[in-house]
Specification:
Layout lengths: L1 H20 L6 E8 L4 E2 L5 E8 L8 E9 L3 E2 L1 E7 L10 E9 L2 E5 L17 E2 L1 E2 L3 E3 L4 E6 L12 E8 L7 E8 L7 E5 L5 E3 L4 E9 L2 E5 L7 E2 L12 E4 L1 E2 L7
């Protein structure tokens, strides 16, 4: 009798522990990562807050069901884990995740898209994609580009040099150079290049012009003569293959500066 009693007690305790681990009780967990469109270092003292919200009622404040606060976060992406009570979740409700990244009460990043979880066919776990609230975002990827021309066949001379300037032309009277660089050993067209990225800031709200000049034999040989042709559209911040600055250059002998 004694030999049977101890295993029965042990099995009962095990069943209770398994039930707790499987969320038979009052809580469950949602996990994921807060992500920017690229890896990014955060300033010292940054705090990442992720909330689980019932956002079913459009004309009422969201109901908070749980949150995770990651203090002194060093970079994005960063993992989060939110405990919640399943009894507070209505299967018909819209349950979503919200993420904020702040430092000294200053908002740096926030999600601008809905990330549903748990109900209405949504997954239990989800990453949260955030955007920068600043109109500028420092790029850590080089700015790739291509220069084409239909006026030259074969390789360019060995002494040919390509000079690139990217202008912020949002205010015509206050244009300024965002970044510039020069390249040798060009080979032939199309010429592929990458602009230096250190300290470059790009805004989706600004207008930009690409100036491209090719010198050889001691003279300017190719350029983009028409200011209208220099205009280029850049996104919030270049990311991988999402952007390639592309433009054409023309021989100075046939297309003088306008």
């Amino acid at each position: 009798m004694t030999r049977l009693f101890v295993p029965v007690i042990w099995l009962a305790a095990l069943a209770v522990s398994v039930c707790v681990a499987a969320a038979c009780g009052s809580s469950n967990t949602i996990t994921g990562e807060v992500r920017f469109h690229r890896d990014v270092d955060l300033p010292a003292g940054a705090t990442v807050t992720v909330k689980l919200l019932d956002t079913s009622l459009a004309d009422a404040s969201a109901i908070e069901l749980g949150q995770d606060v990651i203090e002194n976060a060093e970079r994005l992406p960063v993992r989060f884990s939110i405990e919640y009570d399943p009894g507070e979740v209505d299967g018909r409700a819209e349950i979503t995740l919200q993420a904020r990244v702040e430092v000294d009460d200053q908002l740096l990043y926030i999600n601008d898209t809905v990330h549903p979880v748990l109900t209405r066919g949504a997954p239990r776990n989800s990453d949260v994609r955030v955007i920068s609230v600043s109109e500028f975002d420092q790029c850590v990827e080089p700015l790739p580009g291509q220069i084409h021309s239909s006026f030259w066949d074969g390789d360019l001379p060995d002494d040919a040099v390509l000079e690139i300037r990217l202008w912020d032309a949002s205010e015509p009277e206050e244009r300024f150079v965002v970044v510039e660089a020069s390249f040798a050993d060009l080979g032939g067209f199309p010429i592929h290049f990458e602009l230096p990225y250190e300290g470059v800031e790009i805004s989706r709200h600004h207008r930009y012009e690409l100036e491209a000049n090719i010198h050889f034999d001691g003279e300017l040989q190719f350029h983009i003569p028409n200011p209208e042709w220099r205009r280029t559209v850049l996104p919030y911040c270049p990311d991988g293959d999402d952007l390639s600055i592309v433009n054409d250059v023309f021989p100075v002998s046939e297309f003088p500066a306008e």
